[in-house]
Amino acid sequence: MPLQSAGLLLYRHRAGGLEVFLVHMGGPLWAKKDAAAWSIPKGLISPGEEPLVAAIREFFEETGFAVRGDYEPLGTIRQNSRKDLTVWALEGDVNPAQLKSNSFDIEWPPKSGRVQQYPEADRAGWFDPATALQKIVRGQRLALERFLASRSA
Q1: How many CB atoms lie under 10 A from the CB of residue 29?
Q2: Do the beta carbons of residue 108 and residue 30 sit within 8 Å?
């Protein structure tokens, strides 16, 4: 059975149009990547936790921003062979320069015996739809496409 995760896709309206908020995945594997290296802030649902509660918690843990409002369900997608992702859209505004992400430990370089700590998200940004579709990891693209389709209907 795939792992269950949940996330929030924050969006805002600007004079130039719609923008979505994405975070760049932290750690050495993503450090030099840009295209298909950005994510909806998300994470695993704890046992017994409601998915929306998990999405709100994970958003805070990955960004440092507490957000609330009218959560719009975008459904569940298969992010990869091991993980499903349930996403909600939320209108709001945050300053990417104030990102404060939690961190994780990883042995790096591999087999070196050195454990290093990296932020889960090392930067964040607001992107227009076309740019966001290029930046988002492939496994989450369907969630972004669903959101964008709901805005053009």
Answers
A1: 12
A2: no
Q: What is the rounded distance in angstroms from the CA atom of residue 65 to the CA atom of residue 121?
A: 13
Helix (H, G, I), strand (E, B) or coil at 59: helix
Does residue 80 contact residue 139 with C-beta atoms inside 8 Å? yes
Q: Are the C-beta atoms of residues 135 and 128 closer than 8 Å to each other?
A: no
Domain ranges of the chain: 3-152
The answer to whether 7 touches 54, Cβ cutoff 8 Å, is: no
64-102 confidence digits (pLDDT tens): 999 999 999 999 999 988 999 999 999 999 999 999 999
Task: Give the class (CATH, top level) of 3-152.
Answer: alpha beta
